[in-house]
Amino acid sequence: MRACELKYALGLLHFNLEFVAGVEATYHLNVRESLEPLLDLLAETPWWKVDLELQGFYVEFLEARYPEVLDKLRRLVRRGQVELIVTHYSDQIYLAYPEYDMEKSQELVGEILERNGLERSRVFFTQENFFTPAAPKFMEKHGFEVALIDYRYYNYFHRTKPDLVKPLYYYKGVHVLVGPPPQYTLQPLSCNCLRWLWYWYGDGEHLLAEGSPYSLLDFRCSGRRRERMRMILNELRDSGYRLVTVSEFVSELLERGCKPTAMGEVLEGAWNMPANDGVYLWMGRYRSYWEMDVQVRSLSYKSRKYVLAAETLVNYAEREGEPTSDLVDYVKLAWKHQLRAECSDPTGWSPLLPEVGYAVNNAYLAEYYARLVIGEVKRRIGLERVVVDTMTGRVEEGVLEEGLVKVEALPIKLEFVGCEPEVEYLRSGEEYVVRMRFRPKAEVAGVKVPLIHSLVSYSHSLNDEEVETVNLDKFDFNHIYLPLPNGLISLDERMHLVKVNEKMHVAVRVDKIERSIGFLVEGAPSYMEFDWELRVLRTSLEEALRRALEINVWPRVQV
C-alpha cells in the first residue's frame, strides 16, 4: 500500500418494515430475524460502523412492540456506531405525491425520534433510492447534507464507466455519494490516493438472514451468514480499511482537501432504472395478478383531498373561535394512514394481494378519519354543505360547479393506443376536459399526444409550485417516465396537459425517439376498466400551473 493511500469501507443497510406490507407477522420477523441480530453483532464488534436506514413507522413499531430492541438501537446510535437515517414516516413513493405530504412525513418522524431519544443523521436515502432534482432544496430545508443515489440511476442519465465513478459529487448545494456499480460490492474503487468500497448497499434484511421476507417459515437469521459477515469485517480491517459512516467519509474527504465533482443533471427516478423504468414500475406497469398500480395511486389521491379538507376545517374552526384540540389527533391519525397508503410496496415489484390491500385499506382509513373530523367540525360550527379551499383555507357554503359544456373536438391531437375508449370532450373557457373509459386490448394501452420539441416543462417532485424547462437532448436516455404530482406537463407556451391524479395517476412517458408523450398502462388485464380524466389548457403557463395545483395539490373539496 502506498504511504498516502487511504482506504474506507462503507455499508448502507435499508430496513423496510413494509417489505410485505399488510402482513404483520412479517414485521415481527423483520425485527427478530434481521434487525436485532444485526444490532447484536454490532455490539460485539465495536470498531464496526454502519449506516442504518429505518422509517419513522419502523421506530414507532419498535417503540410499541420491541422496546428492548429500541434500547439496543439507541445505545449504538449514541456511541456513534450506527448512523441512523430516517427520511420518511412510511416507505413512501414520495416522488408521486406533493411536497406537502413529505413535509407531514417530516413532522411525524421528528415527533417519533424526539419521543424515543433518537437523533437522525444528515444523510438522505429513501425507499427504492428514489431521487428528484428538487431533493437538494428539500434536504437543505430539513437539515440533510449528503444524498445517496444508485449508480444505475445516475448512469441512466449520464453514461459513466464504473471505474470513473468519483468518491464525492456536489449537486445543487448538497454532497452526493453514488452507490456501487453492479458486481462492485466488496470491490474497491479508486481515485488518486483514495480507495473505497461498499460491502453492502441495499436491503438490510438479507445481510444476516436467509430466505425471503415473504416466507414466514424460511426467513431466519443464519449462523452461516453471521460468521461470513464477521470474516468480511475482519478481512477488511486486516487489509487496512477503516469502516466508517457516510458522514465520516464525506467529512474526512473534505478535510483532506478532496474537491467534489460537479454532478450532471438528473430527473426523477429510482435505483435500478433499466429494470424499473424509474417510477413506471410503481405507476403503470402491471406484473402480478393482483396489481392495480393506477387504481391504488389514484385512490390515495382521493383520500388525500379529504385529509387536507379535514385539516383545513380544523384550522378554520380555530380561527372562528371553536376549540378543536380534541380533533387534532384524528387528523394526525388520518395523515399516518395516508402516508402508509402512499407506500411503494403495494405497487411495483409484483405485489401480493395483502400488499395491494394494505394501500387500499389505509386510503379508506385515512378518508374515514378525515370524514369523521369533517362531520364533527361542520356540526360544531353549524355548516351543512360547504366547499373547502385547501390552498387558501377559505370555507364557503355551496357546491362545486365547473360549467362544462360538450364539444366535438380538442385543440390537440390524441392517439388512442391498445384500446377503443368511450370518449367525451367538454369545455369551460380555454380548459378542455377529456373523459375516457376503456379496457386494454393490447399489452400497452392508453393515450398519446405529439411531443412538439425537445424542451419539456413540468414541476419536479418535491417542488410542485414551480415549473422547470428540461432539455431532453442533454440526457443519454431515449425515454423517461415522470410522476407529475401536480399533474402538469406543457407542450409549448400556450398548450398544457394536466392529468387528474384522482382519476389517472399514471407515470407519463416522454419518448425522445417516438416524439410523443404517453399516458399508458402496460400489462394490465383485458377485464380491467380504466376511467380517466385529462385536462387540456390553452392558456399561459402561470394559469396552467395554478389550475394544476388547484386540481391535484391543493384541491377545492365539497363536503
Describe the structure.
The protein is α+β, with helices and mostly antiparallel strands and 559 residues long. The protein folds into three domains: 6-275, 7-stranded beta/alpha barrel (Alpha-Beta Barrel); 293-397; 405-554, no CATH class. Helices cover 35% and strands 23% of the residues. The chain has 15 helices and 29 strands. An eight-stranded antiparallel sheet has the order 16-18-19-28-25-24-21-22. Helix 1 runs parallel beside helix 3, helix 11 (293-319) packs parallel to helix 13 and helix 12 (328-341) packs antiparallel against helix 13. The longest helix has 29 residues, at 353-381. The radius of gyration is 24 Å and the shape is globular.
List keywords for this structure.
559 residues, 35% helix, 23% strand
Q: Briefly note the CATH topology name of the largest domain.
A: 7-stranded beta/alpha barrel
Instruction: Report the β-strand fraction as a percent range.
Output: 15-25%
- Please compute the radius of gyration using only Cα atoms: 24 Å
What is the global morphology? globular
How many domains would you count in the coordinates?
3
Give the beta-strand count: 29
Class based on secondary structure composition and strand pairing: alpha+beta
Summarize the biggest pleated sheet.
8 strands, antiparallel
Distance between the termini: 70 Å
User: Taking all residues together, what is the mean pLDDT?
Assistant: 96
Which stretches are poorly predicted, pLDDT < 50 over at least 5 residues? none
Q: How many individual helices?
A: 15
Question: Can you name the CATH architecture of the largest domain?
Answer: Alpha-Beta Barrel
Provide the spatial order of strands within the biggest beta sheet.
16-18-19-28-25-24-21-22
Helix content: 25-40%
Task: Kindly provide the name of the CATH class of the largest domain.
Answer: Alpha Beta
